Hints:
By secondary structure, the protein is of the alpha/beta class. The protein has helices spanning about 1-15, 55-75, 85-105, 125-145, 180-215; strands at about 20-30, 30-40, 45-50, 110-120, 150, 155-160, 165-180.
Amino acid sequence: MYLFLFLIGVLFLLFFTKVKVIIFYNCQQGQNQLTIKLRSWFGLIRYTIHVPERDKDDSEKIHKGKMAAEDAINSAGDFFSSAEDIKEILGHIGAVHRIMKNFLRKVRLSKFECHTSIGAGDAALTAVLSGGILALQSWIIALLCMYVTCKIVPSYSVTSVFQKPAAGIVLSCIFQFRLGKAILAGIKLFRYWKSIHAESEKDSMQNFAADSNGQTF
């Protein structure tokens, strides 16, 4: 009895536990740094993830992996040949989008700063690139604010470097959510994936049975 109550209490705490995610990304002057910090229970639980910069060998491996993936996609291009397949894929995307949208509504954004610098060596081209990047940032932030709950006004800027070619970005954001909401979203995604898998197996069995009956006659 006490063990059952203890488990219920632990699940209750986990469900209402708030998780704060701090993301910092710095890519400029040859540096490429990504740090993700997880905080919970007023900082008593902490976990930090440092994503190291890839070296040339890793870049070559990734490039080869991309080439292999492109070959696989090209070889599987007939999968999208029929309108029914495309309609089914769009239906799956819509279902996943609804599940994620319900979860993202519970996510609170408490900080968002994105500062970019760009230079092409030519004043006219630099101005065009700066305007395009600024428009892209505005669109991304508007899309983000449409899905999550923003508690602040996002800060973003583009610095034009006319003296020399340059490119850099510094991104810093903080958002938080309840662990229970994330668990529920994960359960819904798993159940949806499981239902799709069951339907595909059922269709395969029906097709196999139909082929077997056809060969019998």
